Every structure is written in C-alpha cells, then in structure tokens.
Task: inverse folding
C-alpha cells in the first residue's frame, strides 16, 4: 500500500533517530494493519519516522524529544513470552535513487507493507513490511533521506522464548 501525504517529515537526518519500546500509539500519518501467523501488527508511519504496534507492545524508531539520537546496530530484549531482536544500519547507497525506488516497488507489491511518501521528493519515504518467521513475526523498515542520500534500514524479529 502506498500513500502520499501533505505533511513534511519531522526528522531530518538519520543520526537523530532513536529506539524506544512500549510507547503508547503516537499520532500516525499512515497506518496499515495486517494479521500474520496469529499476530496482528499495525504498521504506523509517524511525522518523525515509524512505530509498529503488536498487541499492547510497541516499537518506535523516531526522533523523540526526550531521547538522544543513536540507533543501536543490534539489540535483544525479552518482552513477556517473546524475544525481540532488533538490527539497524545506515548507509549512503552509491545509487540512492535506484535503491529507494527498489524498496518502494517491493513494498507496493506486498499486501503486508506500507509506503508513505513525504512532499518534496518521491524518494522521501518511510516504508515498512511485515512477514511471518519461525513461529513469530518480523518487520523491516526503510527511512530515506534524499537531502543527505541516507537510507536507514531496520529489522525486528519477535519469536516465542
């Protein structure tokens, strides 16, 4: 699913992103709810990046006013009966436009994905895609910053303990 919005994104660079678990649902510019392997996952694009809601738990990757920017490259956390594994990387692809266009095309073709395009550039997007994995659920996200040629990728996997 692809959605174009009129709201400019609030975060302006990858270095300002932080990771938070358990925040209440924040105001979203675009949402897409999917059910995968018994899990209901709500993919949410925020003005300051993304949030994924799974039951009464959430993962938020965003520019948050009370947290310093700096995504961990990897992290593991136990949440109830589940293990959450998070990974992130930021890069400057040699062909930024081609890389982002490829992400957009793949997510547009995926019924369990959401792409939100921000004004100013068709490459200013936040994309999320969910899938079933090993008795659990996973999602990947992409945050594209065309003004800096940066692409942030995250992947989270939630499986039973």
Result:
């Amino acid at each position: 699913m692809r959605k174009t919005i009129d709201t400019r994104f609030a975060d302006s660079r990858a270095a300002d992103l932080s990771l938070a678990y358990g925040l209440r649902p924040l105001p979203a510019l675009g949402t897409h709810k999917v059910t995968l392997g018994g899990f209901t996952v709500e993919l949410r694009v925020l003005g300051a990046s993304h949030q994924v809601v799974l039951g009464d738990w959430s993962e938020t990757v965003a520019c948050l006013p009370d947290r310093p920017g700096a995504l961990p490259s990897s992290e593991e956390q136990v949440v109830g009966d589940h293990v959450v594994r998070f990974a992130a990387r930021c890069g400057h692809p040699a062909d930024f436009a081609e890389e982002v266009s490829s992400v957009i095309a793949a997510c547009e073709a995926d019924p369990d994905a959401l792409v939100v395009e921000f004004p100013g550039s068709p490459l200013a997007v936040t994309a999320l895609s969910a899938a079933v994995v090993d008795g659990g659920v996973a999602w990947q996200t992409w945050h594209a910053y065309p003004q800096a040629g940066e692409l942030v990728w995250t992947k989270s996997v939630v499986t039973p303990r």
Notes: Helices lie at 96-108. The mean pLDDT is 89.
